[in-house]
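Researcher: I'd like a structural prediction for the single chain below. Treat it as a standalone chain; there are no partners to consider.
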Amino acid sequence: KLQDVLAIQAQHPASALFYAPNFSLGVRVVSLLTQQLARYEKLLPQYDVAIEETHHTAKLDAPSGTAILLAEPFLGEEGRYKEWALTPNAPEGALPITAHRIGSVPGTHTVRLDSAADTIELTHIAKGREGFADGALAAAEFVTSRCGVFTMEDLIPER
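Model: Treating it as a single chain, here is the predicted structure.
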């Protein structure tokens, strides 16, 4: 958790730490687009929102940190969803996250807004682990000669 990373860095103020639930640069772009979708969702209450994620069978956590990251923009006191919950037991009013574990899938995440009129989907499909490695290298280069805690928001800021 970011709070834990901040506590560690406070003990070593001359250090640099980079925290991200997912190091894929593509996931960061999808996260930014999801934030935009969430702004529209608040104006369009006829859309139900759901997150679906698929990973390899060796992945132990469910939902993934990325699925939670993509759900967060839709949560809040003023919004329709106060919390996310893992399906199939998601309570009424919670944003449902469905987690699949199958084969050797590196990671697929879909944000879905569904209404009686249409469906809007935003999907990121990792084709391998290279995208995560590229993001980790970009993060390492970013923190060189810096002190503090940094996130993907620092590496790829919202414009």
